[in-house]
Amino acid sequence: MDFNTLAQRHKTELLESVLPFWLEHSQDKTYGGYFTCLDRDGSVYDTDKFIWLQGREVWMFAMLYNKVERRPEWLECAVQGAEFLRKYGHDGDYNWYFSLTREGRPLIQPYNIFSYTFAAMAFAQAAIATGNDEYARIARKTFDRILEKSGDPKGVWNKAVPGTRPLKGFALPMILCNTALEIEPLIDKELLEETISICLHEVMEVFYRDELGLIVENVAADGSLCDSFEGRQINPGHSLEAMWFIMDLGVRAGDRKLIDRAVEIALRTAEYGWDKEYGGIYYFMDRKGAPRVELEWDQKLWWVHIESMIAMIKGYSLTGSPECLAWFERLREYTWSHFKDTEYPEWYGYLDRRGEVLLPLKGGKWKGCFHVPRGLYQCWQILEKCK
What we know:
By secondary structure, this protein is mainly alpha-helical. The protein is 55% helix and 9% strand. It has 13 helices and 14 strands. The strands form six sheets. The chain has a three-stranded antiparallel beta sheet with strand order 3-4-5. A three-stranded antiparallel beta sheet has the order 12-13-14. β4 (99-100) and β5 form a beta hairpin. The chain starts with a helix and ends with a helix.
């Protein structure tokens, strides 16, 4: 495998295709913030603004400005998005709404904890890029809010009746593994270490199940398995994304055992989630093999495959595992041949089980300027170091 050529391919796709697409089409020059509902050619088909996608785009351009090149257009893009979020994204006490109108009027209440996590990441990177103390304060305050809400993320907007079947989800401790590292320079060292320790325990000892060899998406409040639709759900893409977060924590701690365990889980998850008939990784699966309730369970999604690519090339770079390298090549071939649009910039997000495009859009309520550019950046950086 020619690592240099592959690194250049990912770099070129990021810098010459994907980022220019978002810079040109997503920025709202009238009201600030970003349009994320973009059709195949970049035309705007809806103007609602979703806070977690606004935060992701601020983070993306600020991070690239901080780590790749100090391009003024990247900083300008990040700052105008941060200003829109600062003015309109929260209720005044840093409870972050789910969505806003184009002008910034709140549409949906702050029920979604991921509005908070990506706001924290956004303002942390924007603070580093600009030196703006207000941005740093917002990042810290939002992180505090996340920790306050971690026991009951949805709060008053939780639809479940209390006490009947209390469940806790994998997504929050998983994302906090990454968020904590993103805002590390801005928060108290003791708080950071405590957060990382709790999240590592949750991910690797509660949601990862030795009896299955896999990570489940939801467990009972006491940490036991729950035999219900939610309790049986496995999301291979989530698991694989989490494992490269864990690898990063292993590198930070100099913990080779943790890295090796994350690689082992990633390999097992990829084998479990791979569609043996049509290729690609399933969106949702059932740990008992029962029918899934989600109609999209067998779709092939952009983020699942891109995050899996990162996990495998990172696993190879850290351990030299030939299995990781083989999986990276299999995932890379599938992802580039199915998700990349050969006529317009940016990538498709949604394929059917057979790998045919379901929706030609490039962005929407759930897909924005994040997984594709982050994945290209990660793979480019890792491939450059591989031998």
